[in-house]
Design brief:
Helix content is about 80%, strand content about 0%. The chain is mainly alpha-helical and about 170 residues long.
Length: about 170
Amino acid sequence: MTDLTRHGKDQKATDASIAIGIPAGMIGLALVGALVTSATLVIFGEAISDPVVLTERVGNPLFVVGSMLFLVFATLSTNTAANALAPSQDIAFLSGGQLSYRQAVIVLGIIAILIQPWKLMTDFALYMNVFLVGASVFLGPIAGICIASYFLLNKKTLHIPELYNSNGRYS
């Protein structure tokens, strides 16, 4: 959330966007999904919750093309907003100003393609043993360092302004 809320003009605007925008979007999406799935029960005699299967069942080529374009746009815009924002900002920051946010998104996209998630999803053992265990090799020590730093070095005390100071005690 902080990646998105830090761009708010003040705390009131940030609170309003979280309190209104997120629940409204979630409820709206769930409502549309439930209504469309219920309508497929009446139209096709079975509940179809997969939008790709539903598009295929309609059969109209123009509808199929339009629906697939909409699904591609919805997937890309959702993933960009929800999943690519934080790592892209991290990549841009770690580049030391060499990469803009847009360039970092492209780098992230290339990394995502190199990971080949479609292969991870075909084999559960590959996903569990290679991807998750491989990620935990890096994330486990990072979490351990953060926890040890907080409890042992800082004695459960953080100086919040120093977290945002590039020359502060935590840099």
